[in-house]
Amino acid sequence: MYKGLELSAAEELVLRELDGAGAEYVRLTHAAAETMELCRGIGAEYGAAHCKNLLLTDKHGRRFFLLMMEPEKPYRTSEVSRKLGSTRLSFASEEQLMSVLGLTPGSVSVLGLLNPCARAAYREGRLALAVDGELLKRERICVHPNINTATLVMNTGELFDLLQKEGIVPVIADI
Predict the structure, then answer these.
(1) Alpha-carbon gap, residue 65 to 56, rounded angstroms
(2) Above 70 in pLDDT, residue 1?
(3) Domains of the chain and any CATH numbers
(4) What is residue 142's three-state secondary structure?
């Protein structure tokens, strides 16, 4: 439970949603971890690790994909674009990241999909969640609760079940 903790509004929203759904998680605090290198090792004592979270956009900036993939896998624009059936994808700008997910660079997380702006973009068909199939084989996963000074260790299946209950169905792709 988050009660009694000093939290940002972004993190409180996430924890309220998770607690309301009865989701189990372990909350870890740490120095700002805004890169995969800085995330390395966080959650390892629970048998979990972070994944890459990339907000991608088509060349017109009208369609977005939140891509979750294994941290060691390289991101290859042409391959990912082809597998997601999109025109050439590129990294979203800082402004797009804020307007679509309500997040800042270094705090991108699948839990950003719980933010009101992301829910709206998803409902409108402007945002999709794309997940590397390898991630679904993990028992546990580490995710930022919309800030990069904390990490939640969660059961991978439970996380995706929660998202599906919220109407967020991932596109599974072998990246």
Answers:
(1) 5
(2) no
(3) 9-173 (3.90.960.10)
(4) strand
